[in-house]
Specification:
Layout (H helix, E strand, L loop, with lengths): L1 H33 L2 H12 E6 L6 E2 L5 E13 L4 H26 L4 H13 L5 E8 H7 L9 H4 L1 E10 L7 H4 L11 H5 L1 H5 L3 E8 L2 E10 L6 E4 L3 H18 L3 E8 L5 E9 L5 E2 L4 H4 L9 H10 L8 E3 L4 E4 L2 E4 L7 E3 H7 L2 H12 L3 H10 L18 E2 L11 H6 L4 E2 L2 H12 L4 E2 L4 E6 L2 E5 L4 E3 L5 H16 L6 H4 L7 E9 L12 E10 L6 E8 L10 H20 L15 E6 H10 L3 E4 L8 E7 L2 E6 L18 H11 L2 E6 L3 E4 L12 E6 L1
Parallel strand pairs: 2-8, 26-28, 29-31
Antiparallel strand pairs: 1-6, 2-3, 3-4, 3-5, 6-7, 8-19, 9-10, 9-24, 10-11, 12-15, 13-14, 16-17, 18-21, 19-20, 22-23, 23-24, 25-27, 27-28, 30-31
Helix pairs in contact: 3-4, 10-20, 12-14, 12-18, 13-18
Length: 710
């Protein structure tokens, strides 16, 4: 009996303990759900749900004459959800029925694996129920179009499990052309350069979001949980592709010929300050030249004799001299506080200020500046401040440097020799663009314009912002001083003693400008140690009577350079640029506007959506004779204000077969060729007339193709 009671007591005790434990567990559950519920739910979401950004389509960069300088083409990453319900229903019948034909199609499209290898890869991933399996990365739009029609894939996402993740690839169709100015667009936007950096917020648009759920070892997108991105806007630059090409080629030719270190050529529209071209080329270790730094905007150097215009304008505006005043060059050599200044051509005696300028006498301008400004240096410095040579240029591009260094009389480093050396282009650091702005102001009747590179911003072809010319200084000096300075600049070219006479005098149009040859402290070795290194410059404008363009050419030579003087090096480049601009834009004969409807047939090849949009906007009747499944490309035949859209051979071109792009515009041609895997080199503008690789031939990925536009 005692044993029975003892056993029952123990049973009751265990039962009571279990009840207490159960009550505690139930209480904890209630506590977690009611009190800590929100915390643990948010913790679960943070571990299993996350938002990933969806990049917007980046806007394009255009030249002012309508050519694409930088644009984006779509590429796709392909994923497969092998846990998709439609793929696994009925014991995976849909997957098993299509695996052979799908593997064959993938092998035939990408040529990277055999049918058996693709089949084995897909079967293993299916067996492991991989939820976000990466099948292929960075396929082109053309490959994407073909893939969508493959067996199983064409059944849709829910039944096939195929997921397409689109993103953009940035390309510059003209490759080298203004590459440093247009800039680079990288995934990390803080590392962008050029216009891609300056206008990044405009170009990139607004990023969207996609909700991703962590399932079976991988993140998968949640259907319907997306915020669409807002595409970026396009920017229209002031650049002209013809002028840019001319400047680039002329600069390249001289750098290669003279074995120079680097150089820049900038073309500015005189009346507005628009930069029509900016070429920047630097020598690489293999002796080739690329756009490695924006030398025209970012690199400050001692300008040399082109700075004498500053001294001349100051003296004339203060009425200390006229261009007919006399100055003694003292044989071309003189000491200033123990430091010698000499002319490149010794022997000159008493000459006029005008002759001193056109002969580029260092001694003459050092003497004049010392005579009139040594005892009142702030008056000299105020002219420099008025010319904005101590300020940033204001150009709308982010440069890594470009900050001028101009001594101030109130600084400790101001010496007795500062004024005579500054007067002929030393002891100050300015960019070529600073000097170009001053010369352009002289050409523009004293009005200094802000240099700029972007003229408008467009959204879906509609202008949303226009950037107008901006006046920085209404008048840099008096009209009397300006007229005399112009006469001196013209004499540099016209006079037989002018430093630029032998290079640019024989033009059918008038040129005015100034040469400069500066000894540079190369590699911090000083000015006079070993063989000297020279920087050659020429800045001028044309036609001299009614200037349309102002051009600056600055080239840093090497010890191997045979030509060193500003006229021989930079003056030659200037002349080639000005000749071609003048013949192309300024010397065309006038045509009467006797227009009538053209009944000739016009042919074109392009994307169906683009062609349809154009015809709709222009209210031109057109008929599409191709079925809905006929692809994205159309061949257009237009006559008498009526057009017919026909099937284009581009729609059926296989991968690794060169398509026929003749008749296409640049954007469509580059889009098609780059998506095929070809590296495109462009020459000219307009429509494609020839291509270096014959249509229909096989090619290797990355192979170059040259297309000529006319």
């Amino acid at each position: 009996m005692e044993i029975k009671k003892d056993i029952l007591w123990r049973v009751y005790l265990c039962f009571l303990i279990m009840i207490i434990i159960g009550i505690l567990i139930l209480g904890k559950v209630i506590y977690i759900q009611t009190v800590e519920g929100k915390y643990w739910k948010s913790m679960d979401d943070s571990l299993h749900l996350k938002y990933v950004p969806i990049n917007a389509e980046r806007g394009s960069i255009y030249s002012e004459d309508g050519n694409i300088l930088s644009t984006s083409i779509p590429v796709f990453d392909i994923y497969v959800d092998f846990g998709a319900g439609g793929l696994r229903e009925k014991n995976g019948k849909r997957f098993k029925d299509n695996i052979d034909s799908l593997s064959y199609s993938l092998s035939n499209l990408f040529h990277d694996k055999t049918l058996e290898e693709y089949k084995n890869e897909l079967e293993v991933a299916y067996k492991n129920i991989d939820r976000y399996y990466l099948l292929k990365r960075k396929i082109s739009f053309d490959e994407y179009q073909q893939l969508r029609n493959f067996p199983l894939v064409r059944m849709g996402r829910n039944k096939s499990g195929f997921i397409f993740d689109a993103r953009d690839k940035r390309i510059n169709p003209y490759i080298l052309l203004a590459n440093r100015t247009i800039g680079l667009s990288r995934e990390d936007s803080s590392k962008n350069v050029g216009l891609e950096k300056s206008y990044d917020s405009v170009l990139r648009g607004t990023t969207g979001q996609r909700l991703m759920r962590y399932t079976a070892g991988a993140y998968m997108p949640v259907d319907g949980a997306e915020i669409d991105p807002e595409n970026g806007k396009d920017i229209i630059t002031t650049l002209d592709t013809y002028i840019q090409d001319v400047a680039e080629n002329a600069l390249m030719k001289m750098l290669v010929k003279n074995i120079s270190q680097h150089g820049t050529a900038i073309v500015m529209e005189t009346a507005t300050g628009k930069i029509k071209a900016i070429a920047n080329l630097g020598m690489q270790p293999d002796s080739s030249y690329v756009e490695d730094l924006n030398y025209g905007i970012a690199k400050s150097t001692e300008p040399g004799s082109i700075f004498k215009l500053v001294t001349l304008l100051s003296l004339l505006d203060d009425k200390y001299v006229t261009i007919d005043s006399k100055v003694d060059c003292e044989g071309g050599s003189k000491y200033f506080s123990g430091l010698r200044i000499k002319d490149s051509h010794l022997g000159a005696g008493v000459i006029t200020v005008k002759d001193a300028f056109l002969r580029s006498s260092n001694v003459a301008f050092a003497k004049l500046a010392t005579q009139y400004y040594q005892d009142q240096p702030m008056k000299w410095w105020q002219h420099i401040d008025h010319f904005r040579l101590n300020k940033m240029t204001g150009v709308d591009i982010v440069a890594s440097s470009g900050k001028p260094t101009i001594k101030n009389p109130q600084n400790k480093n101001w010496e007795k020799t500062t004024i005579p050396f500054m007067a002929h282009g030393y002891e100050e650091l300015v960019t070529p663009l600073h000097m170009l702005m001053l010369y352009n102001a002289v050409a523009n009747n004293g009005k200094m314009m802000r240099p700029y590179l972007v003229s408008s911003i467009k959204e879906y072809g509609v202008e949303v912002k226009k950037i107008n010319p901006e006046v920085l200084v209404e008048k840099i000096c008096s009209d009397e001083a300006l007229a005399q300075a112009k006469e001196c600049l013209k004499a540099v070219v016209d006079s037989v003693h002018g430093t630029a006479h032998k290079i640019v005098f024989d033009s059918t149009y008038a040129i005015a400008g100034k040469t400069g040859t500066a000894v540079t402290a190369n590699d911090n070795n000083g000015y006079n140690k070993g063989n000297k290194i020279y920087q050659a410059s020429f800045i001028g404008y044309f036609p001299a009577e009614k200037p349309k363009y102002t051009v600056a050419v600055v080239i840093q030579n090497t010890r191997k350079s045979k030509l060193i003087y500003g006229a021989d090096v930079s003056g030659t480049v200037f002349k080639e640029i000005s000749d071609k601009i003048y013949s192309h834009y300024l010397s065309k004969p006038e045509h009467k506007n006797n227009f009538q409807r053209d009944s000739a047939e016009y042919s074109y090849v392009g994307m169906k959506s683009d062609v349809a949009t154009i015809f709709s906007r222009l209210k031109i009747n057109y008929r599409d004779s191709v079925s809905a499944s006929g692809g994205v490309w159309r061949s257009v035949s237009y006559r008498n204000n009526s057009a017919e859209l026909k099937n284009s051979p581009q729609a059926s071109v296989l991968n690794y077969v060169v398509p026929d792009v003749k008749g296409m515009g640049l954007k469509d041609a580059v889009y098609l060729l780059e998506n095929k895997g070809l590296q495109t080199i462009v020459s000219g503008k307009g429509r494609v007339v020839t291509q270096s690789l014959t249509a229909g031939m096989n090619f290797k990925k990355g192979q170059k193709i040259i297309i000529m536009l006319n």
